[in-house]
Structures are given as C-alpha cells and as structure tokens.
Design brief:
The protein is an alpha/beta fold and 612 residues long. A hairpin with a 4-residue loop joins β16 and β17. The longest helix is centred in the C-terminal third of the chain and has 21 residues. The structure holds 6-O-phosphono-alpha-D-glucopyranose. The site of 6-O-phosphono-alpha-D-glucopyranose has 17 residues, from α9. 6-O-phosphono-alpha-D-glucopyranose binds next to α9.
Length: 612
Amino acid sequence: MCGIVGYIGKREAEPILVEGLRRLEYRGYDSAGIATLTGPHLHLRKRAGRSADLARFLGEKPAPGHHGISHTRWATHGPANDTNAHPHLSTDGSIAVVHNGVIENYSALKRQLQAEGIVFYSETDTEVIAHLVEQHYKGDLVEAVRAVLNLLKGTYGIAVVSTNHPDLLVGARLGSPLVVGIGEEENFVASDPTALMGNTQRVVYLQDNQMCVLRPGNWHILDANHARIDATVHRIDWDPGDAEKGDFEHHMLKEIYEQPEALENAMRGRLSDEDCSAHFGGLNLDACALRRAERFIFTACGTSYHAALVGEYLFEEFARIPVEVEYASELRYRNPPMERNTIVLAITQSGETADTLAALRESKRKGHHTLALCNVVSSTIARETDGGVYLHAGPEIGVASTKAFSNQVAVLTMLALYMGRMRNLSSLQGSRMIKEIRALPDIVRRTLQCHDQVKEIAQKYHQVSNMLYLGRQYLFPAALEGALKLKEISYIHAEGYPAAEMKHGPIALVDENTPSVFLIPSGGVADKVMSNLEEIKARGGPVIAIAPEGDDELAKHVLSRADEVVFVPQMPDYLQPLVAVVPLQLLAYHIALLRGCDVDKPRNLAKSVTVE
Ligand code: G6P
C-alpha cells in the first residue's frame, strides 16, 4: 500500500528517493511521484504505473536538489492516474505533501475550501492538506502543519516540504506508520524502514500524534502538545541482502524456498526438552494468568486469518481452550460478549494492517489482555500489544504471503504446546510433539522436491477459469490458503471449502473444465475425503490430489481415482498444513507465471493494507 520516502541532506535527493520507492514497491501501488527543491523552485514529477515509469520520466526530466519527498500511491480516492499521484501542491505551488492513510472528513474540508475559491486539481483526499497548510502558513511551516492536523479526521502519515524552507522537512503520524532515518549531515523519513536500507540503520519510530522536524544536520520529535520529546533511536538489524531476490526469479519463489530456514528461526530457543514444552520471552503474562485464560479470540486478515484457523484446531486439540477466529475487519465493529478472561491474539505479518490494529486497540480498550504474532520488528502492532511473539521469518517482500504463513502456524503450534502443557498434556505427549515439530524444517525441505512435478501440473491447468480447493479438519484452512494464493496472483477464481461442504453449493460448478485440488489427510477422515473425491470424479471434474506418502493402500486408491497426484511427506495431522501448503504455493506461482502475471506485485493488492 502507499509508501513515503523523504530526504534532506547534502546528496542529490532524486536517486535516494527513487531507490527508496523501489524498495517499497512490494507493498503494492499504482502510481508514483516525487517533488524536490532547489531554492525557491519545486520540481514535481508524477506518473501512473510503476516506479520504473517514474524513473524513465525522471531520465527525461530530472528533479534536481538535495531535499525532497516521494510517494507510491495505492488508489483510494480517484483512479490511478498522473494527476491523482502524490505529491500534491498548494495553489501557489509552494507546499508539497505526500500522504498515506485516509482523511475521512476530506469532502467537508474540500467543500469549505472550494467555497473560498480554491480550485482542486485531483480527486484525492490528500490535496486538502496542501491547501490547508498554505492557508495556515504564517512563516512557520511546522506550526502550519500542526494547525492543519487538528482539522483532520482519519489516518495519516505525511511528509511536507515548502519552497519557503529550503532546509526543512516536516512529517506527522496518526494511524499510518512513519519512521525517521538518522544519517550523518542528512536525515530521512519513510513509511517503512525497508526504504532506508543502504542509507542508515538508525531509526526512530514515530508514535501516533507525533511530528518530526528534519534538517540536514539535526532532527527532533514533537508530541501532541508540540513539546520536544526524547525519542529512542533503534538500530535495524535486518541485512539489506535479505530483501533482494538473489538467484530467484521472484521474491515469492525465494520466500517459498526460505520456509525451512524460516521455520528453524521461528523455533530457535523456543523448544525445551527439559520442560517438554515451549518457551516465549515476550508474552508478558505469567503462567498463572495464562492458566486462568478461558477463551482466546484470534483476529487477523488475509493469509494470517488462515493461519489463525489452523491455530483454532491446534489450541482446541492440545490446549483444550475454546478459540474463536474473527476477521479483524468484523471484530473491530462488532461488540461480542467477551468473558473477562478472554485473551485477544492478533496475527499479522506486517504488524501494520489497519483492521487488525483497530481490533487490537478495541480489545485493549475493553480491558482484555492482548497478544500479537508479528513478523515486522517494532511495527505498530508489535509496539502496542501487551505481549507477543515475533515470527522471525525475515523480510517478506512478495505480496502473496508464504513463509510468514508457515511461521505463523509454527508459532501457533508451539503456543498450543505451551498452553497444553499447563493444562492437560503429559510430559510424554509434550516430548513427542517437540520431536515432531523439530522435524518440520527438513520435512518442508523435502516437500520442495515436488517443484518440477507441480510445474508440469501448472502447464496442464493454467488456462482454467475456476478451481476448487478442498480439505477437512487441519487441511481445511490449508485449502482456503491454496485458493487464496491462486486467486491473488493468477486472477483465476478459486474457492476453498471443507471437502464435504462442497456438496452444498460448489459441486454445481464442477465440470470437465473446473479442477478440484484435494488435500488428502493420512488418517482419521482420509476415507471421507476420498468419498468426496469420488463425488467430483462422478461429475467429470478433474482432480489434483496432494496426498501423504507412506500409506500404500491410500496411495493406490488415490492414484486410481485422481488425474494428478503429488505425494508429500507424511506428518501427524496437526503439522500436515505446513507440508500441504508448499505444493499449493508452487502451483499458484507457476500458473500465475504461465498466465503472464506479475507474481510479486499482483494487480490491486497491497502487501500491507494500512487503510480500512
Ligand atoms: C494483505 C496481503 C496479504 C496478507 C494480509 C494481512 O492483504 O496482501 O498477503 O495476508 O494483507 O496482512 P498482515 O500483514 O496483517 O499479515
């Protein structure tokens, strides 16, 4: 979703701003723009499309200067075109603004400004900010921005420059992340520290209602009362190399292949043979308080929601605690009765998803203890939750989440073990689980060997228009995730369903052009799933089966009925989603490639959805 990069210092701003935007591309956007300053001159360049289109335009018409702001826009108000791209200017052209978030009262403000004779050029909510800053400007840019912030309702991360202040860059945050990067005789602002990689490792995360005031040689942070505060400077320890593609053609493929290592990182130091349990440093809840928990609410969006659904099965089986899984966008506006001892657990890769953050805040407001599973260190949710667990998946750049999903499920499995050991799991059961969990990285490594076979299957089916993904129990959320992956990056309509539920509707879609991907479990309900498979075959639907190795009888049966069978290593049911999801990720990847889709940056999607 939208990205901001700003620079003030002694170097040429343009290459720094454009490179910063390139680093933010993964978040999803549909236009890009830049404004730089040389003395009283402002150089504005904007283009619909990719940051490469903007870079080409800058090749023809450079933006000189040592000071500027830039932006990637994900359209909310008005289509993605050159005019609606940020930065937006005040009428006299002296003030330029970039903005992430949504100004909810923009139409009232716009009407008011229009009544005063101000002409608007764009359809965006952001343009009101530029005009308002000009109106309030009386020689002090910081003061003018502060006055305008008081008029805005909604969310924002903004950066503002003015031709009247060749040595000043002002930023502010409410609900949309902003980080200050500190350099030598130069300073930066960005919506995501990734944009600053290669320039500085020292950052200050702005809190809501704070402003930052940057000059080449100094910077300070102001609180809501306009008082200077002592801000904590953090050091980013991610290796910039992590965010590059290396030998892989796409970030998504690289991240699929990183899953074994990511899982090792998620487990490191968290499994204890001595206690036959797991340990977590940051829950900020002692064992007694956890034992008192009567219910968990897991809340999340997108892929993280699917991980939460696997977590529900895990918690109920091993910890014997009731769990409800809620879309964060629903939970934030619902008012469900929640017992006092309910813990709300937010699950999020980015730690910035607007709905998940709002659901977490609402739960805190009601006095519930909140926990979060986050990947991005020091993200807003990571900072606001009462306690939590980092996923340690490393930077995930591909918009379609892969390794973050696996680590979310792995962390939920270890949490279920931890909670279970406090309640009803014996030490023997705990040790067995530890052994099984520890085997995961190698099992996933082995599962990746299905790659070539899945690629061939993709060749055969990449022209279909609909696909069904069917699984039961632990493999039901994996089916949902497989369908989501395909939808996101190949634009093929796909639905995930509990295999038996398919009889209540989706079976009407089945014909020889609608393949069904069946996730076959190893025990328990395997026979039931095979009956569902027969029902699809009986109606002429092609079947792609993902089946466990090691059960000859089952293998024979699947081979005789399915059109394609991908055998994957067999794990206990509760770990099988982490194995089954691998061929599903690869299938979506190859189908999308064959259809000529932009795998890492699918249309209309954003990596981190920071608007409601
Ligand atoms: C967007 C992304 C998805 C992601 C979802 C939730 O829709 O495209 O890949 O699963 O947001 O994001 P989060 O960062 O909260 O896990």
